[in-house]
Amino acid sequence: RPSPEEALQWRDSLEKLLQNPYGLASFRSFLRSEFSEENAEFWVACEDYKKTKSPMKMAEKAKKIYEEFIQTEAPKEVNIDHFTKAVTMKNLADPSPTSFDMAQKRIFALMEKDSLPRFVRSEFYQELIK
Description:
Regulator of G-protein Signalling 4, domain 1; mainly alpha; Regulator of G-protein Signalling 4, domain 2; 8 helices; single chain
């Protein structure tokens, strides 16, 4: 469990929140309660994808991420605009560590602007900073 001081930093930094295992877990459970957990799951999948070294593994993971989060009617489809979706699909023709960067940045911005303020106001978070 993080210290109240540590948890307080999450108000101003989604990055710090997502990098902290406890913060990520609590944010995901909050998102689950709001039915928007796919955003955090997508972000985590992209972080994992960027660490992949083998081109074969990378192509495999890229396909899985695409099918799970990007394609229309995907089981956990994230909310990205058509342009971002098109760029991402084009990038997947030749998967690289940056293939999902644009989509990941969009989802990060969405969580930062939308979900983080609601998380910070939640009872759960208020308990953490006491």
